[in-house]
TrEMBL record:
Belongs to the GST superfamily. Residues 91-227 form the GST C-terminal domain. It holds the Pfam family GST_C. This is GST N-terminal domain-containing protein. It comes from the Eukaryota. Residues 7-88 form the GST N-terminal domain. Gene3D superfamilies: 1.20.1050.10, Glutaredoxin (3.40.30.10). It comes from Botrytis elliptica.
Amino acid sequence: MVSPNKPGLPTFHHLNDSQSQRILWFLEELGIEYNLVCHTRVEGRAPPELKNVHFMGKAPVLVTPDNVPIAESSAILGYLIDAYDKDGRFAAQDKVRDESLSSFAGSTIGTIGMIELIFDIVAGRSPWPLSILLGGVKSNVHKSFTGPEYATQFQYLEKELTDDWFNGKNLGRSDVMLSWPMDFLAAKKYVDFEKYPKIFQWRKRIQERDAWKSAMEKGNGYNLAEM
């Protein structure tokens, strides 16, 4: 439940078209009351006012009721679960596995996606014929490096998804963490998700959840294809 700057509540600073959407989704899953501040990108970047919230000037940022700003999705999720998941609905069923998959979401699969994104951004801002040349370079990089890396990573995740959720029978932190790179890769069409039926159905289950739909309504845009 979103409150209009009510004291004593966590305040979430959200940025459109960004990974902070997964935190907004999890806040809705928790069903707690919180303040929501939506920020809008300026020329594709986070707006300057986010510097007033956290030194790095990026989102997501959660400010605790004690006025402590927390950046980084995994840290925010850890705090929210510890502070507000009193009945253990989202508790890790295997803590080591949960930590491994949550780290994998940011440091492994997310890094490979950024390589292709950089090529897209540079090519999109370059004049012809340099843009054509960069497109060709990116195609070769995908064929020789990022494509095979995606295949290995997705085969691993497909193998790990032995239940409805990566956390097991119940949704957990690893599912929320993995949702962003999966959404990003799907929107950019870097990976053909139909080749990985378990992951395809997992994403469908997320998008069918009431909390996901509510978060999409409360956010201010989630168009990752235009990044």
